[in-house]
Design brief:
single chain; about 575 residues; Deoxyribonuclease I, Chain A; 5-stranded mixed sheet; 11 helices; about 15% strand; Endo/exonu/phosph_ase_sf
Length: about 575
């Protein structure tokens, strides 16, 4: 009897058995071995020698590397885009500037075109006017002389264009005969060359008075045959001189005319004709008349400079000091070169319009403008005061009419600069931290304008002040040491005087110094003014420093020289 193997039961070709047995598992699953079949066509059995397993980590690395490459590429691209944007912005600015310039140029071109059109129109109008004038001139020139009636003669005489052409033609011929024409403003006309200036009257004398007194001179027997005019020509209602015109007589040459004019000048000067309206001036007999040729503007300026210097010097000599120099108050003591504009008083040269500075002299040289001197405007009331610790408002209350106060030992307050305004004065004071009491200046509100500059020293202060109607003025106040060595005293004085060097030397200066030394005044010196006599070492040093700075001492009134200026603290 044959038995079947259990594995074959229910394992048909369709994978089922009649008896409903389980599905047959492969041998491998059951732990058995199955012989492998050589099937190269099966993908699961094909060899994979050149490939490996790709994990998620590998994918992340690949994606990260790819991302970095993309970022680097985009970064380079971004840099390029930024560079392009930068260049584009610069181009925008340049284009904007070009547009602005272009618009400005267009505006200028339009303005130039408008001006050109206006100029063209004016030129055409001028051409038409000139053509008309030329036509009229040709018609007038074509007319025979004496052929017309009275109306035509009047037209010929009243034609300004023909008169201008004739004068121009005659002027050109005269210039050719003389070589070259002189410069305008420096030459005299023919009429001025035949004119004399007769003067000697006081400034602002009435014209009628000048003509009346000059008539007596011109009618003199020695002068009347030499002149051609009956009276002087006076311009304006008030003058101090007049002009005498001359005319050629017959065949008289210019040289003969000059000789005749010189005779008149010498006759007037030699006649010593006194002017009644000037009695009381120039002594007691009055001034005498004088005559001179008419000068060019440059020569008049030089003469005016000499007259101004002499007049100012005489006025200053008359008002200064207790001892007056009589020689400086007399016009005859001054030597004047009117041609060069130079004036001397004895051996001293006071000024010149042409001479150069003498470098051997140690004093300064200034170029002064010309102008009138008004004594009332140039003078001021100046007072100096050692306050001894009082406030500045009390000083103004004591004497409110004084123009300038120069004070020392001002009441102690905050250190540094301080500006104070009272009802009558403006005050500028200063005190250093190591200084017990300060110094200051006070200017009346009527004359004060502004403070231009200011300087301070260890024992004083100076300021450059602008005054109304008087210009610039340096004001200073110094309180010298007391009870110290000579070295400390002299150092403080030198420091204070050093502030006046440089550009400040050209301004007038008024200083007040409490020297704390006994002063003796000498009235018999060679300078003819009151000076400080030789004193202590500190006083002599301070005077030398002040003299080197261009200052000179001014003595107080004679009645005040013997009064005490301070007392010791123990005597208070």
């Amino acid at each position: 009897m044959e038995l079947e193997h259990p594995e074959s039961l229910g394992a048909g070709p369709e994978g089922s058995a009649e008896g409903g047995g389980k599905r047959r598992r492969p041998e491998k699953r059951r732990g058995g071995t199955v012989e492998e079949e050589d099937d190269d066509e099966s993908p699961s059995k094909r060899g994979h020698d050149e490939s490996g397993i790709v994990t998620c980590r590998d994918l992340r690395l690949m994606l990260g590397q790819h991302m970095r490459e993309m970022k680097e590429a985009w970064g380079t691209f971004g840099h390029r885009v930024a560079g392009v944007e930068k260049v584009t912005k610069g181009h925008d600015k340049e284009l904007k500037a070009v547009h602005v310039r272009h618009k400005s140029l267009e505006t200028k071109v339009q303005n130039i075109q408008a001006k050109g059109d206006a100029t063209s129109r004016k030129t055409e109008e001028l051409e038409g006017d000139i053509h008309k004038l030329k036509t009229k001139v040709e018609e007038l020139a074509a007319r025979p002389s004496g052929s017309g009636g009275p109306m035509e003669d009047n037209d010929m005489m009243l034609d300004p264009w023909a008169d201008y052409l004739n004068k121009k033609k005659s002027g050109e011929e005269h210039n050719r005969g003389n070589g070259s024409a002189k410069e305008d403003g420096r030459a005299l006309s023919e009429e001025d060359q035949r004119t004399l200036i007769v003067g000697g009257w006081l400034p602002d004398t009435r014209r009628a008075k000048i003509e009346e007194e000059a008539k007596t001179i011109l009618e003199h027997d020695t002068i009347q045959p030499l002149i051609d005019a009956e009276k002087l020509v006076v311009f304006g209602p008030r003058r101090s001189f007049g002009m005498l015109r001359f005319q050629p007589r017959g065949d008289e040459s210019p040289v003969d005319l000059k000789k005749r004019m010189w005779e008149v000048v010498s006759k007037i000067r030699g006649g010593k004709f006194a002017l009644p309206s000037t009695q009381g001036e120039h002594g007691h007999g009055g001034k005498t008349a004088w005559a001179s040729f008419l000068k060019t503007p440059e020569a008049r300026r030089r003469s005016a400079l000499c007259s101004l210097i002499r007049r100012v010097t005489m006025q200053l000599a008359g008002i200064g000091g207790d001892f007056k120099n009589d020689s400086a108050m007399s016009p005859e003591s001054y030597g004047v070169d009117w041609g060069t504009g130079t004036i001397w008083n004895g051996e001293l040269k006071l000024g010149s319009a042409t001479h150069r500075k003498d470098n051997n002299r140690g004093d300064d040289f200034f170029q002064l403008p010309q102008g009138p001197l008004e004594e009332e405007r140039s003078s001021m009331q100046v007072a100096t005061w050692n306050l001894g610790g009082q406030t500045v408002d009390k000083v103004a209350a004591v004497d409110p009419c004084t123009d300038v106060f120069l004070v020392q030992k001002v009441a102690r307050g905050d250190s540094g600069w301080k500006e104070t305004e009272t009802d009558s004065h403006f005050w500028l004071t200063h005190r250093r931290p190591d200084q017990w009491r300060g110094t200051g200046i006070g200017i009346s509100n009527e004359v004060f304008d502004s403070v231009i500059s200011r300087k301070q020293a260890s024992r004083g202060m100076v300021a450059l002040i602008k005054l109304r109607g008087r210009g610039k003025l340096i004001l200073g106040s110094l309180h010298a040491h007391t009870g110290t060595t000579n070295r400390i005293y002299q150092q403080a004085a030198a420091e204070f005087m050093h502030e006046f060097s440089g550009k400040w030397r050209k301004h007038p200066c008024i200083l007040s110094i409490d020297v704390n030394e006994a002063i003796l005044w000498d009235c018999e010196g060679a300078s003819h003014r009151t000076d400080i006599a030789s004193g202590s070492t500190n006083l002599n040093y301070l005077c030398n420093q002040a003299t080197a700075a261009g200052c000179r001492p001014v003595a107080p009134l004679l009645a005040q020289r013997g009064l005490p200026t301070h007392y010791l603290s123990s005597r208070h």
